[in-house]
Amino acid sequence: MSGVDQPRFYGLGDMAVYVNSDGDTSTFNLAEVYPVHAGKELVIELWDPDSGNNGVEIYMPDGSLPLCTWSATDGRSGPPAPCDVNYSTSFNDHHMQIRIQIDSGYTCTTDCWWTIEVSYPGGANDTTTWSARIEGNPVALVK
After folding, report:
1. Which of 19, 25, 49, 64 is deepest in the core (most CB within 10 A)?
2. pTM (whole model) above 0.85
3. Is the pLDDT of residue 51 over 90?
4. Backbone phi, psi, residue 127, to 5°
5. Domains of the chain (ranges plus CATH)?
6. How far is 4 from 52, CA to CA, in rounded Å?
7. Is the pLDDT of residue 137 over 50?
């Protein structure tokens, strides 16, 4: 099958991911971000993100880690740094938001998928909910 013929599925607003693992690392397509979004902000929302893992990494299509900030409903947050968010304690039943400023010179070719990598060293058996959106689209006001 060619890429055009491949089925695709999407979450409307957000997507639940059930993890049942004895210990592994998984990489998922998170958001397809086209160059038209250069200079805007990618916002990733995670509910109950720990579920047995010890962090998440966000990768751009070229395999590099963008700079990001994050905050959680338990009061913790992280300063701008490469987007490798490691957990030292649980985020169970908490909401986490990761914000990435997309570089004004951002480009991609035919593969514009940003990915999320999650490591489950001790295994997991839980559901998390993820969403991604772009903020910063211009608004034209007409008199």
Report:
1. 49
2. no
3. no
4. -115, 135
5. 20-135 (2.60.120)
6. 36
7. yes
